[in-house]
C-alpha cells in the first residue's frame, strides 16, 4: 500500500485529495506510476494527460520522473508550483 | 545558524521578525527583507486561495534555507509563507536575511525567493470579484529561468 | 513616483515606512527593505559618529533615487539615512523599494545601497569603548567596485 | 568670494569647517583650486597632500578635478564617502 496525495488542479481533476492503492510489482519508477494511474479511469487520464508538467514528490522530496519509487510511503502529484 | 521557517494562515509582523533575528547579535550589519503582497490584478481579484502541501512545505523551505546558509555567511534567516484566503494588499510571504555585509543579505534573500517561487509546494487560485473561480495561476517560465542564475555562479 | 528621502538623527520605523509606501496601492506585489545596522566590531566599538553634508546629502540621495526610478518599474521608493552618534545594534540606513515584481524591487534596493555607500556625503568615525577616537573609517575599494556592475548592464 | 566647506578628516586637518575666500583669476578648475589652497599653509598641504583621493562637490554636485569651477558659490572638499 502506498499513499497518493494530489494538489491543485491535479486534485480537482482526479476528484479526490488522497487515496491508498496497491502498486503492481511492475511499477518501479514514477513514470511507471503515471502510466499505471492513467489506466484507472478518465479522471486520471484527464489529470495526467500532459505528464511532463506533473511534478512528483516521494516522501516530501521533489523527484524526477525516472526516479525509482523504492520504499516511499507517500507519493504526491501536483502541477508546477506558484508560491511566493 | 538555525533558520526560522513557518507556514501559517495568519499574517506576520515584519518588524517583530527582524527584531527576533537581530536582537543581541552585534555582528549584524545588514538586514534585507522581502515581502510578497497580493495584487488586485487591475481590480479583477477578490482574493487568492493558496493551497499548500502540509509537511513538505516546511521541509522544502528548510532545505532551501540550508542551501542559502551554506552559500552565504548569514547571521540569521527567516522564511514565512502563508496559506488560505489572501486578499489584495495582504502579505503572502516574508523572507528576512541578516548578515555582516549587505551583498550576502541581498543575495540570500533573492535566492530564497527564487527557489520558494518554483520549489516550495504552494499553488495559487484566483477568486474573482463576482465570486467565480478564476482558475489556477500558471507557473511562469521566467520564474523557472530565475533559478538558473544561481547555478551559473 | 516621488521617492521619500530623509536625512535625520532619529531612528526610523521600518514597518511604518513600508506601510506609507504601499498602503492603498493595489499594484504592489513585492517590497524589499534594506537596513544597515551598526556593528560592534568584535566588541571594540562604543559608537559610530556619522558626519554628513547637510543639503547635499538629501540632494545626492534624491539623484540616486531618480536614477533607480528611471531604471526599474517601481511603485514606491524610500531612503532614510541617519547622522550623529549611533551605537552598536542601532539602525544607520533604510531603503524600501516596492514594485509589481520581485526582481525590480531587489535590484532597485541593491542599486540604492551601492550608490549611497560611495556617493552620498556621509563619513563614519569610530569611537572606541574607552572613549578614544578610533579614526575615520576608510572607504573600501570593494564598495567602489560595486558601482561597476550597474554600468555593465 | 566663494564659500569653501570641509568634511571629515579634511575638516579636521584644515582645522575649520568652512571659510570664504577670494579666488585669484588664475584659478579656473578644481585642480587649480587644490594647488592654490596648498599654498595657504601647512594645514592645507597636510589635508590635501594626496589630492587624488580628495572628492569635490560644486554647489552640492560631485565634480571631477578637471571640471571648471564656473560660477559655483559653494565648493566642498572631503574624503571618499563611507555612508550606508
TrEMBL record, chains A, D:
Pfam families: ThiS. This is Molybdopterin converting factor subunit 1.
From TrEMBL, chains B, C:
Its EC number is 2.8.1.12. One of its GO terms (biological process) is Mo-molybdopterin cofactor biosynthetic process. It catalyses: 2 [molybdopterin-synthase sulfur-carrier protein]-C-terminal-Gly-aminoethanethioate + cyclic pyranopterin phosphate + H2O = molybdopterin + 2 [molybdopterin-synthase sulfur-carrier protein]-C-terminal Gly-Gly + 2 H(+). The keyword Acetylation does not apply. Pfam families: MoaE. Pathway: Cofactor biosynthesis; molybdopterin biosynthesis. Keywords: Molybdenum cofactor biosynthesis. The keyword Cell division does not apply. GO terms for molecular function: molybdopterin synthase activity. Belongs to the MoaE family. This is Molybdopterin synthase catalytic subunit. The lineage of its organism: Bacteria, Pseudomonadati, Pseudomonadota, Alphaproteobacteria, Hyphomicrobiales.
